[in-house]
Amino acid sequence: MASSTKMATGVGKTAVCTGATSGIGRACALRLAEAGFSVVAIGRNAQRGAEVVEEMTACSENSSLPAQHEFVSCDAFSLKNVVAAAEHIQQSRKAVDVLVLSQGMGSVQGFTPTVDGNDEKLTLHYWGRMAFINALLPALRTAAARTAGEEAAKRVSVRVISILSGGVHSAYPGFKNDPELKEGSYSLQNAANAAGFYTDLCLDAFARQPRNEGILFVHSAPGFVNTNWGTEMPLYIRLPVRALQPLLGKSPSSCAEIMLRPAFMPEAELLGKEKPGEIILSEKGLPARRTDLHTPENVDAVYHLTGQVLARSGIMLDDVSTTGE
């Protein structure tokens, strides 16, 4: 565990974790609770959500201030449910200091539409995550305003961390011709690359908006972790994965420790000499590469695309026209 992580405190701050009832998301929620954050855990299963709240309460019982933990039920396949959950948090918490997004699925299914007409996998890995971020921006900006006057060397500003495939995925070259993978481009590889590539670009767009100054956007990769990932996979894939996970996979808590480093590190230490924009981190928590198609033009194009897709569900991104012009 890094010394900065040991020394950090979240007392008096609020964190939101999606996918928090199992795996990496649960481990992140518990680690943040241990650090003193009041944590809002988001997931589908109410029983497991109640169990996570009990565990978080036990983790933070020695905190100098009582933490207010909560579970919010949300079926993240529905973008309207995502926004409803975020709006509940916005109203009840006012300020959010850390947002961790980890919801996902592993399957070999083809394009499978949600109630919004979007692919299930892309919804969990990308569309829904961007909807969460967008809906919580007012609360994130409120938290950022509290740290605006602090020195960069000491400031631990607001963080948005999307745990997916930072530095691992390739670019999705079909994003202009078949951006939603509805026109024959769908494959497991394209779906994975599109979600990761779009995350890079959209987080970069969020990070460069003047109103989001003081919020750092991070795209990280968890690596191979010993979780229940792949429960939707066929048996011939799931069994070998389960056999290898205890041998080669890191524990969820070890993974969370790495994924959450940005939530505890001072801004100057995390950014170094990097220019404003999103930060991409590897499974070891080190700076990772951008794809060759990560250009200002494509950042704007993917942000605009995202705005158009979300607008179909009544979700409006800042500064995005939905006319197609």
Describe this structure as you would to a colleague.
The protein has 325 residues and is an alpha/beta fold. The protein has one domain (10-311): Rossmann fold. The chain is built from 11 helices and 7 strands. The chain has a 7-stranded parallel beta sheet with strand order 3-2-1-4-5-6-7, sandwiched between helices. Helix 6 links the parallel strand 5 (158-163) and strand 6 (215-220). Helix 5 runs parallel beside helix 6 (188-207). The longest helix has 27 residues, at 120-146. The chain is globular. Keywords: Oxidoreductase. It comes from Porphyridium purpureum. Pfam families: adh_short.
Which word captures the global form? globular
Task: Count all strands and give the number.
Answer: 7
Number of domains: 1
Largest sheet: 7 strands, parallel
β-strand percent reads: 5-15%
Low-pLDDT ranges: 1-7, 321-325
Oligomer: single chain
Indicate the CATH class.
Answer: Alpha Beta
Spatial order of strands in the largest sheet: 3-2-1-4-5-6-7
The arrangement of helices and strands along the chain is HEHEHEHEHEHEHHHHEH
Helix- and strand-based class? alpha/beta
What is the topological layout?
Blueprint (H helix, E strand, L loop, with lengths): L2 H5 L6 E5 L4 H12 L3 E6 L2 H14 L10 E4 L5 H15 L4 E4 L18 H27 L11 E6 L24 H20 L7 E6 L14 H14 L3 H8 L1 H4 L2 H5 L7 E3 L14 H16 L14
Parallel strand pairs: 1-2, 1-4, 2-3, 4-5, 5-6, 6-7
Task: List the main descriptive attributes of the protein structure presented here.
disordered N terminus; Oxidoreductase andH; alpha/beta; 43% helix; Rossmann fold; 11 helices; 7 strands; 325 residues
